[in-house]
Amino acid sequence: VKEQGKNSFQFYTPDMNEIVSKKMQLEIGLRKALKRDEFIIHYQPQVDVNSGDLIGVEALIRWQHPEWGTISPADFIPLAEETGLIIPIGEWVLYEACLQNKYWQNKGFLPVRIAVNISSRQFQQSNLVEMVSKTLKTTGLDAKYLELELELTESIIQDSKHAISTMHQLKEMGIHLSIDDFGTGYSSLSYLKTFPIDTLKIDQAFTTNIFTDLKDASLVDTIINMAHNLDLKVIAEGVETLEQLQFLQQRQCNEAQGYFFSRPISAEEMSTVFKEQFLA
Ligand code: C2E
Ligand code: CA
Ligand code: CA
Ligand code: CA
Q1: pTM metric for this prediction
Q2: In 45, 67, 133, 189, which residue has its Cα 20 to 30 A from 96's Cα atom?
Q3: Burial category of 172 from C-beta neighbours within 10 Å (exposed 0-12, middle 13-18, buried 19 and up)
């Protein structure tokens, strides 16, 4: 992480506040956040829709700024990507999440996968595989308990040879791979058969509209069928109601995640969830 100059405090004087844009202040804060230990991770359960078993936990970062309060990742991850700060931040998340999962396993909880978001910029780093491998080694987590949620962007698809090679190396280590936010953004169906992935994650925009938009319902149906034909599992995010869950169960969706089961919660709160059964 690049250090700020000695007089960076000047940006916080009232006069300068008017001049320096909000974005610049955010960037200055972001550069210091790792060293100041301001990030925390919340965890959200991923559940098997048939058995109700907890099968995974997604790690979601939050920024707790001493003055600005809690900042949602939607408000700083894009800037972190733009500035390259996502590289050290992403490394920190992976390390913390793997360590936490190992800690839960050491406590005797049922082993689950920890799912970590990898932004496209991070995925395209030439040392990604090495970094992940090192992290597993230092934390002692078995690779089969790690899942990487990949974001597919145009630049990844355009360099698909490199992407495929990276994915294969991660797969060979025993790591699970999923495609995040499926159905939004840059979507190309052809890569699905060439990319060595395990799971498609249906974006919550579709889950939300299952009962309000017939086209979204039919898209969800189609994505699930297509995924199964390609031997991929499907997880739906943003499940908030029993009706949505039942729709997904009927369509043979494999896994679900959302407020219906649990909001993202702290590591301590997660400890009680390990003892829970999600479906009667
Ligand atoms: P995402 O990966 O698509 O994560 C799902 C988002 O939906 C999370 O928002 C989660 O809290 C929220 N969510 C979960 N269940 C429900 C539900 O039932 N209803 C509704 N309305 N929302 C639900 P969050 O935590 O604010 O994260 C936003 C985005 O920030 C994530 O979207 C992800 O793209 C990014 N992000 C979060 N943590 C990381 C990280 O460690 N690394 C990277 N690269 N990106 C991250
Ligand atoms: Ca995700
Ligand atoms: Ca999403
Ligand atoms: Ca995402």
Answers
A1: 0.92
A2: 67
A3: exposed
